[in-house]
Each structure stands twice: as C-alpha cells, then as structure tokens.
Recover the amino acids of this structure.
C-alpha cells in the first residue's frame, strides 16, 4: 500500500511546479506504462493492482526500485482519469542529447507556443507515425509532462525526443547551408505542388495566432493546405494537429 | 434578464434527453453564434451582454423571437464554458432533406460509432475545409448537438448536413452502380497509390474498434495510411480525426 507521503507526492505531480522540482511525471494505463518501461524510461515508482501484476511479469518489472501493490481505492486517489487504470507509473523525466547530424539530415517538427495538451499529444503521435524523431518546442509551449499530454501520446512519447528551446536560437544553429524551414500560411504555396525535401524544420503555430512574426521571417518555404472547392468560403482554419498530419503525410508521400 | 424557467430550460439542454424533447441546442461564442445565424439556423433565444449587442446589430438579430440582454452572472449560470462567452444562442434543431443526386455524385463521410465529441467536431471542420457537404452517422455516434461537439466545429456545422442513419441501410441505397465505399484498414492498399474517385463514401471507424465487421463487408476499397519508415514499429494507429484529414486531403489533391 502507499503511504500518505507517497500519495501526496504523486498527487502533487499534476502541477508543473512539482514535476520540475522532483523531475518526475506520471503515466497511467497498461499500454502507456509498458511502452515507457520498454523504451528504457526509468520508473521511480510503479503502483498497480494485484490483477495487473499477475498478467505482467518481466525483467523490466523487477528492475524497478519501488514497486507497490495497492487496491482500487488508493488507485482512485492518485489517478487523474475518470476510470483509474490498473497501473500508474511515476517516471523520471529523461534527459538526452540531440543528435545534430540527424537533425541536419532529417525532418523535425518545431512547435511555436502550442497551448492545448491534446494537440501536443496528438502531434507527438503523428510524428511517431511518420518517423519524425525530433520535436522542438518554444519555451511557452504546453508542458510535455502535463498528464493530459502524456495520456494523449498513447505511448508515442517513448519513441520521440522532445526538447524545449528558444526557436530563434534553434533556427540560427541549423539555417546555414540552406536548411529548409517550412511553415503554413494562408498566402503560402499549395502544398500539393511544392518542392518538399526530406530534411528541414516544419513549424506549427499557436492555435489562435499561428506562427509568430519573429519566427515567420525565417520561414524559407511558405506552404498552404488548399480548401475545396478553391475560393469557396469554408472553415477559417484547420486544427493545428490536423494541419500537422496533412503536412507530414504530404512530405512522406514524396518518398514513395 | 432571464427568468428562472428560462435558465432551467437552457441548463437542461446540456442533456440529450432534453435536447430531443425540446428540439433545441445551444451554441456559445460570437463566431459560432453569428455563423449559425448567417446560415439560416433558427434561434429560439439569443442571450447576450450589453457589450455584445452594441457591436452586433444586423437584420439577423431583429428577426429573432426572444432576444434577451443579461449580465455576466446570468451568462455564467447558463454557460458550459470555463469563461462564459458574451453571447449564447438557443437554436432549433434543423431538419433538412438529403439531396441524393449530390450524394451519388460526390464524396460523403460516414461515421461508424464515433464516441468522442472532440473527434466529431474536428471531423465536421475537416469536411467543411475539403468541401464535403454530407456526413452520415451511425445511430450510436455521439450526438451532434452535444455542446462539446458544437463548440469543436468552430462554426463549420452551419455549412454541413449531418444525418443519423443506420449505415447498412444507407449503403444499400447507394451501392448500386459500383458506388465506391472507402475505409482504412491495416491490411489496406497504400492510399498514396490507390485509385481514388471524386465520389463515394469514406467510412471512419470507432476510436477503439475501428470499422465494425458488419460494415467492413461493404467496403470496396480498403486503404492504408503508411507509417514511416515502412515496417518500423511506431504508434499502433492514428487518431480517427487525424486519419480522416489525411484521407480527405489525399482525395482532394487528385483534383489539382
């Protein structure tokens, strides 16, 4: 069973302040937790029901420092979900190096102040599907370790490297050598007819404001996802994660 | 100001039972409400702050039976949003005929038990962007008039005809004449290389279960959105609204 202090610690991790302080985050549910364990993300605590333990016994489980079997009422106390999952992991926030050779030679997604946790989680899933290994986020982007983001990634977070960094600095590091910087704008070129390379930054803007002016000036390729029929009045915009998926699909289809 | 009975009626419309009983639904926010008014959707009540009225005076406003100016505390009482909008419309659920000639000659989206209000709202926005006029939903699909769906459409609902109907019946009506029925499956043909026509049904399946077996047997074109690099282990699936956007984009790019 969990102690009062452990329950207090785990509950506090719903807030960014305490996640930063303890360098811990939580993930709930069998698939998400096992994906994180398999990817090598270090668990500080693993809390589960008896039923869950009975169906999951591997070496990964034995290597975890604090394994705590508990009952449904305690799982309910620490869960942020409507229906608590049979397992909750408290994981150490990983640190990793960026492979700048990989960044220079492949596609990365760059997020300019994305605010909605569901959008960030969905974009991580899209990156994973389309084999994009690196996501860079402006410092004002929603926190990756927000439990809503972690849940929305459906485990994709275990395969993606996501870093917070000032975007201008990032671009200045890579923009030599005509490194392409892509962004979507209403006045951009129809994406279906654009020259799309298999390397570069794909910048996705804030839900309300789009790509900020400070960043727009670095965009070398302005793209546009055309609405249909052309010229007819439709929705003013697509949701940012929807736009991101269409763009990623369009880049990858060129390689078929 | 609103009467107690009016507040009670409006609050009750958060529930499907009362929306069905009164044939009314609510929409909040300037853009959504004005889009609905402009599209000809009939408002039963329009409730707004003084500030909102001062910036919005058109013929549309004058034709509304019950216009009620109120204050922020009443707006807060009837709002389902964290931050109540300055205007809330109570609209009559519209009834309309389906133009079967249009359905036979164009693309429609068919939803097989979509459960998440955000997904349905996003799919309506995608349909609007890509000029798809008709959406058909299985009877078990989440209710269009759920306030979360209405808000997520961002006004696109005013330009789309959405109907609830048993899918088998719908397919049987149109499937003569080799009418194409598209659906995504892991064993489908790569969508980038598929023959895609400018007419047919695009079936999108339930979030957890995908397209049901009863419907799968009618699918004439099984499609697949390839992950990248091919054969590498990535996310198990894409979110249904993300998949829908990639498919719609792929159909429309053939017409450029």
């Amino acid at each position: 069973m969990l102690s009062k202090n452990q329950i207090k610690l785990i509950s506090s991790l719903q807030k960014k302040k305490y996640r930063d302080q303890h360098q811990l985050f939580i993930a709930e549910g069998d698939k998400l937790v096992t994906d994180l364990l398999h990817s090598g993300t270090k668990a500080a605590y693993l809390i589960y029901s008896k039923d869950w333990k009975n169906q999951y016994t591997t070496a990964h489980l034995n290597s975890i420092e604090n394994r705590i079997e508990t009952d449904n009422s305690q799982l309910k106390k620490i869960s942020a979900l409507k229906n608590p999952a049979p397992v909750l992991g408290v994981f150490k926030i990983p640190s990793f190096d960026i492979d700048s050779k990989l960044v220079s030679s492949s596609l990365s997604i760059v997020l300019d102040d994305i605010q909605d946790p569901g959008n960030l989680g969905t974009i991580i899933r899209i990156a994973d599907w389309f084999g994009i290994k690196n996501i860079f986020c402006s410092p004002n982007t929603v926190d990756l370790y927000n439990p809503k983001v972690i849940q929305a990634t459906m485990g994709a977070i275990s395969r993606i490297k996501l870093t917070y960094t000032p975007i201008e600095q990032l671009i200045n590091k890579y923009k030599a050598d005509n490194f392409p910087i892509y962004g979507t704008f209403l006045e951009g070129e129809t994406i279906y007819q654009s020259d799309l390379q298999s390397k570069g930054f794909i910048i996705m803007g804030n839900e309300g404001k789009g790509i900020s002016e400070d960043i727009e000036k670095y965009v070398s390729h302005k793209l546009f996802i055309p609405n249909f029929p052309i010229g007819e009045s439709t929705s003013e915009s697509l949701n940012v994660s929807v736009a991101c998926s269409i763009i990623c699909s369009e880049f990858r289809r060129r390689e078929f």
Observations:
- Chain A has a mean pLDDT of 92.
- The first helix of chain A runs from residue 4 to 12.
- The interface with chain B takes residues 118, 122, 125-126, 128-131, 154-156, 159, 190, 192-193, 225-229, 232, 234-236, 238-239, 241-242, 245-246, 249-250, 252-253, 255-256 of chain A (CB under 8 Å).
